[in-house]
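Need residues for this backbone.
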């Protein structure tokens, strides 16, 4: 029963991560589009990086982290260290993104709808980082809890037969 509750919690967190990524994608794309048209220059890299982090979250990261444990839980694709790596990488992307955008916006004279959208993007990106930190903490706890266990549930490999005297 506890495993089912944890799986449900992770699925809810994945849904929250997807919604937050869509919100950040919309806000940062709006600011980047406005910046490009108003200033006739490329938008700041902080907004572009959060667009990348949103797309990374929605396409490879969440697709892998939802689909593989659900459909391929008995294969080598479902490896705890790969999942931990994807979690950690995505969490670092969001941490770097919201921090860079917050620093960028902190020393600017900023007003209007575009500025509000940029600030909202930084806030939602911070919440996204917290959501990824939560799922990464769960992944770390899983790795530590299953340390020393084999991938087949602790059963001996039938292909490794030991003969007496060997």
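Answer:
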């Amino acid at each position: 029963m506890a495993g089912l509750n944890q799986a449900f919690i992770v699925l809810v967190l994945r849904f929250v991560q997807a919604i937050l990524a869509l919100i950040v994608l919309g806000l940062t794309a709006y600011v980047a589009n406005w910046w490009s048209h108003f200033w006739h220059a490329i938008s700041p890299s902080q907004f572009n990086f959060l667009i990348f982090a949103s797309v990374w979250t929605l396409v490879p990261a969440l697709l892998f982290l939802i689909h593989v444990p659900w459909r391929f839980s008995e294969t080598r694709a479902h490896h705890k260290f790969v999942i931990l790596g994807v979690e950690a990488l995505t969490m670092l992307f969001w941490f770097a993104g919201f921090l860079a955008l917050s620093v960028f916006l902190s020393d600017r004279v900023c007003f209007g709808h575009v500025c509000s959208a940029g600030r909202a993007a930084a806030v939602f990106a911070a919440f996204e980082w917290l959501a990824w930190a939560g799922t990464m903490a769960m992944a770390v706890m899983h790795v530590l809890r299953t340390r020393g266990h084999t991938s087949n549930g602790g059963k001996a490999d039938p292909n490794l037969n030991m003969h007496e005297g060997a």
